[in-house]
């Protein structure tokens, strides 16, 4: 299995999931006077098929043979983030890496500083502590993200 655990799981309504994403993206584009071009569709399809967090350069390298330029990838990723369909995590080199976030539970990231691998984790107890602390001090959170940097199991073994 790759880095990403997609929701809904593969054995559920994947077709409906992809359709909902396209409907939301198309609505966002129309609202901004734009349309769903072939290039934007290829970029979104590539993200939907990914089993790991992808950088802009990785997406560009994979799709440039289809006539997609670096600027098109950049603008499309920006539109996908604005429409709240994707999100990014900062990788070990400071480069944003993207993931589809629709219908996925909140999760945090463990980022290997050696190989760049990004692992997703869920910490219900930590989330509960955050919620209780915010409630106790009257803070109303809008969002948060945890990114823990270190060495993955494989890289830790190599350096031991």
Structural class category? alpha+beta
In terms of per-residue confidence, which ranges show pLDDT below 50 for 5 or more consecutive residues?
none
Please report the distance between the alpha carbons of the first and last residues: 26 Å
- Output the strand order for the largest sheet: 1-3-2
Broad shape = globular
Percent helix range? 40-55%
Instruction: Describe the largest sheet.
Output: 3 strands, antiparallel
Number of discrete helical segments: 6
Rg value: 18 Å
The secondary-structure element order is HHEHHEEEEHEH
Total number of β-strand segments? 6
Question: Strand share of the residues?
Answer: 15-25%
**What is the arithmetic mean of pLDDT?**
89
Structure description:
This protein has helices spanning 14-31, 38-49, 56-63, 70-82, 124-137, 153-159, and strands spanning 54-55, 86-90, 96-100, 108-112, 118-121, 147-150. The chain has a 3-stranded antiparallel beta sheet. The protein contains 6 helices and 6 strands. 15% of the residues are buried. With 160 residues, it is an alpha+beta fold. α2 (38-49) crosses α4 and α3 crosses α4 (70-82).
């Amino acid at each position: 299995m790759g880095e990403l655990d997609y929701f809904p799981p593969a054995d559920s309504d994947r077709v409906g999931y992809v359709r909902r994403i396209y409907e939301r993206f198309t609505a966002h584009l129309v609202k901004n006077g734009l349309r769903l071009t072939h290039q934007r569709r290829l970029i979104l399809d590539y993200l939907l098929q990914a089993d790991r967090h992808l950088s802009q350069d990785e997406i560009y390298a994979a799709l440039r043979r289809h006539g997609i330029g670096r600027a098109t990838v950049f603008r499309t990723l920006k539109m996908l983030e604005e429409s709240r369909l994707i999100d990014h995590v900062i990788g070990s080199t400071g480069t944003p890496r993207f993931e589809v976030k629709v219908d996925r539970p909140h999760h945090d990231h463990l980022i290997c500083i050696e190989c760049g691998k990004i692992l997703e984790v869920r910490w219900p107890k930590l989330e509960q502590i955050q919620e209780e602390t915010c409630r106790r001090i009257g803070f109303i959170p809008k969002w948060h993200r945890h990114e823990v940097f270190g060495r993955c199991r494989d890289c830790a073994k190599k350096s031991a």
